[in-house]
Write a structure and sequence with these properties.
There is one protein chain. With 497 residues, the chain is an alpha+beta fold. It has two domains: 35 residues, no CATH class; 406 residues, Metallo-dependent phosphatases (Purple Acid Phosphatase, chain A, domain 2, 4-Layer Sandwich), CATH 3.60.21. It contains nine helices and 26 strands. The chain is globular, with a radius of gyration of 24 Å. 45% of the residues are buried. The structure holds fe (ii) ion (FE2). The site of fe (ii) ion has 7 residues, from loops. Homodimer; disulfide-linked.
Length: 497
């Protein structure tokens, strides 16, 4: 790992343009910087806020209601089972209940299969939702493009999706990671850039619509506009949902006091498939990844349902089948921004030792409207009652923690990072963007953070992630075992016996 001071030193030695005196000054300043910051990483001075932090007006065509009487809108899909052979398709019809059917097949316009879903609607204060349809289609083939049609008659609509490859340790797969998206022009930039990367599935780390920034009837209206906004991606690529604080929507002044009501009515998750008792925490396996979704805003201390479920789910993770273990949550447990500082601390205390014991590869979070990546560190020796130890230390078993709450919502960027940069923080920048994780095989995955840079997608923080389970030691052991097998295979049977 290279820190900011060392970069300055490298530039200094390469360019050799300055006078000896200036060089000496730079060298001493670089050395001082190394001493002051310890192992701390880079604080990028770059800030990119392309557009004002205001929601796109409702009359903008980006939110246009599809033409035609009762035409399906707000179409989105998510994984429908544990292993990726099922999809849940959701959509809204505004005028009347309409059909719950999904017709689907292997070629466009030729639908050999039909599935029947369910329909519900609800009220939120004086807002009355449209008719919300949800339909599970299962027994799909792996790694196959399906075409589907929803709605009735002349105003039906057609989409497609691709199922993941069968769960396999070496299955390559590309995830996009987005958080705190909202519905501004910055949000639109993020979605468009993510579409450009060819990400096959989106891991969403909470805070969807920011509709809770509105009041009364407009809360529901902005949930609807957001559904139409993300359809350009979410009707084709499954989004794996997790909930943030903006989904809580505890509004006693409106008489709305049941948390997550809008979110839960609109964004189903396949939680029963992972033996969870709540749609807010669950797990799916997809290609070579095991993805665990946690809820920062549900009880998680010892003996609570979420704690008990996670304890069991971690035992079910089979790294021989799914080498990549990824955790999603909303409030980051390592964050050196002034915004939301220490808010993830209680979850860190409860779950961090498990993340290290089970060698989680990467933990993605949102909440803070900036980008930050940690080194592999842990603070599991924390015990202020006896030892007094309370600082994170380098730990090869620990995950990399990545905060990607920089989707572009109306609250704007979190511009104030704490100074000095803590030793655990490898790279941080207050700009909008999203991440991609491109799994190559069981040992390597290529990671990028993509900044929204005046309409362009710029890969800004990139590294090759080495799998925590199939790392160097295990690979060596495996190779040695294979070599031993081949030696044994060539030995005369009498010698082996
Ligand atoms: Fe948040």
């Amino acid at each position: 790992m290279v820190n900011g001071g060392c970069i300055i030193m490298a530039m200094f030695w390469n360019k050799r343009k300055n006078s000896m005196l200036v060089q000496l000054l730079l060298l001493s300043s670089a050395l001082l910087s190394c001493i002051n910051n310890g192992n701390a990483g880079v604080t990028s001075p770059f800030v990119r806020n392309e557009w004002p932090s205001v929601d796109i007006p409702l009359e903008n065509e980006i939110f246009a209601v599809p033409k035609g009487y009762n035409a399906p809108q707000q179409v989105h899909i998510t994984q429908g089972d544990y292993d990726g052979k099922a999809v849940i398709i959701s959509w809204v019809t505004a005028d009347e209940p309409g059909s719950n059917k999904v017709q689907y097949g292997l070629s466009e316009g030729k639908y050999d299969f039909t599935a029947e879903g369910t329909m519900q609607n609800y009220t939120f204060y004086n807002y009355k939702s449209g008719y919300i349809h949800q339909c599970l289609i299962d027994d799909l083939q792996y790694d196959t493009k399906y075409y589907y049609e929803i709605g009735d008659g002349d105003f039906s609509r057609r989409f497609w999706f691709r199922t993941p490859p069968q769960v396999d340790p070496d299955a390559p797969y590309k995830f996009g990671i987005i958080g705190d998206l909202g519905q501004t022009y910055n949000s639109l930039s993020t979605i468009e850039h993510c579409l450009e990367t060819g990400a096959q599935t989106i891991l969403f780390v909470g805070d969807l619509s920011y509709a809770d920034r509105y009041e009364y009837h407009d809360v529901g209206v902005r949930w609807d506009s957001w559904g139409r906004f993300v359809e350009r991606s979410a009707a084709y690529q499954p989004w794996i949902w997790s909930a943030g604080n903006h989904e809580i929507e505890y509004f006693p002044y409106m008489g709305e006091v049941i948390p997550f009501r809008n979110y839960l009515h609109r964004y189903p998750t396949p939680y029963p498939a992972s033996k969870s008792s709540s749609p807010l925490w669950y797990a799916v396996r997809r290609a070579s990844a095991h993805i665990i979704v946690l809820s920062s805003y549900s009880p998680f201390v010892k003996y609570t349902p979420q704690w008990t479920w996670l304890q069991e789910e971690l035992k079910r993770v089979d790294r021989e089948k799914t080498p990549w273990l990824i955790v999603l949550m909303h409030a980051p447990i390592y964050n050196s921004n002034d915004a939301h500082f220490m808010e993830g601390e209680s979850m860190r205390v409860v779950f961090e030792s498990w993340f290290c014991r089970y060698k989680v590869d990467i933990v993605f979070a949102g909440h803070v409207h900036a980008y930050e990546r940690s080194y592999r560190i842990s603070n599991i020796r924390y015990n202020n009652a006896s030892s007094g130890a309370s600082n994170p230390v380098p730990d090869k078993s620990a995950p990399v923690y990545i905060t990607v709450g920089d989707g572009g919502n109306q609250e704007g960027l979190a511009l104030r990072f704490r100074d000095p940069q803590p030793d655990y923080s490898a790279f941080r920048e207050a700009s909008y963007g999203h991440s991609t994780l491109e799994i190559k095989n069981r040992t390597h995955a290529l990671y990028h953070w993509n900044r929204n840079d005046d309409g362009k997608r710029v890969q800004t923080d990139s590294f090759m992630l080495h799998n925590q389970y199939w790392g160097d030691n295990r690979r060596r052991r495996k190779l040695n075992k294979n070599r031993l097998h081949s030696v044994l295979d060539n030995l005369p049977l009498s010698l082996i016996l």
